[in-house]
Amino acid sequence: MKKKVILLAAMFVGVSAYAQDLTSKKGETMLPEAGDWAVQFDAAPFLNYAGNLFNAGATAPGADFVNAGAIAGKYFKDASTAYRVKLNIGMGSMTDKALVPDATSTATPVPMVEDSRKDGYTNVTIGAGMEMRRGNGRLQGFYGAELMFMMGSTKTTYTYGNAYDFTNLPSQTHGTDGSSDVLEVKSGSTIGLGVRGFVGCEYFVAAKISIGAEYGWGLGLSSTGNGSQTVKQVNSAGTALEDYTSESAGMSAFGIGADINGGNNLGTASLVATFHF
Questions:
Q1: Which listed residue, of 146, 202, 244, 253, carries a Cα 20 to 30 Å from 209's Cα?
Q2: How many domains in the chain?
């Protein structure tokens, strides 16, 4: 009996020592320390890609990864406290083209000219907050709060292959009705503000590398200014074409609740990978 007690005590001491010896085989510290920096991003696209390697649908991370969410950075004040910042600068465009008959040609078959529609957007998200941490082993819990700010806008531009004059009315490929064509649509600028609390956990799979899950709850509000639309149309007298610009009303929105998977535009991710250095 005495031997069993000694053996169990030795095993307990060994396990405790192993649990406290949070270093890699190379002697690297597993957990973040005071003065460490970290970069955090959405891990789901990479995990999906890894899973797809086992089937015929494997595709490398592309636009979905770019737009997955804001990249987060951390600075560790000490082992249990970190300052967080988030940033996402997104901009892009897509052009949709269509071929229409050349209105000035009498050839057979009629040659084609190109109409196009170009959609562009800009979106900037920034955030800052504080994170508190608990745990002595590889599994770490964290909680905290952060403030998010967002601004963005959209613009759509139309071009037409047939030149405009009163005898050659708009081509109607992207037109609104029988007597006008849209030239440009601009949204008003959107400004949004979010405040959220968060809680989560992460497991350090290697020295200073962790996979974790984060869940948040907060409120968000946004306001979009008036937009505009410019069309080319026949004037009221029916004698000429003119550009006419009209204003569209803006909008506002408010939301409160859980923001897992980026809901409410508060900029979180449900599954994250973090690299410390």
A1: 146
A2: 1
Task: List, as one string, the DSSP characters of 160-197.
Answer: -SSPPBTTB----SS-SBTTEEEEEEEPPPEEEEEEEE
In which residue are the tokens 């409160």 written?
Answer: 256
Note down the domain range covering 73. Answer: 29-276
Length of the chain in residues, anyone?
277
For residues 255 and 269, give the distance between their C-alpha atoms in angstroms, rounded to a whole number. Answer: 18
Let me know if residue 200 belongs to a domain.
yes
Vertex 74, ends 68 and 79: CA angle to 5°? 135
Give the CA diameter of the chain. Answer: 110
Mean pLDDT of the chain: 76
9 part of a folded domain: no
Answer whether residue 271 is part of any domain. yes
Q: Which of 197, 195, 193 lies closest to 221 in space, CA to CA? A: 193
Residue 6 lies in a domain: no
Secondary element (H or E) of residue 63: helix 63-66
Q: Are 131 and 144 in contact (CB under 8 A)?
A: yes
pLDDT tens for each residue of 145-186: 999 888 999 999 988 888 776 666 555 444 444 456 788 999
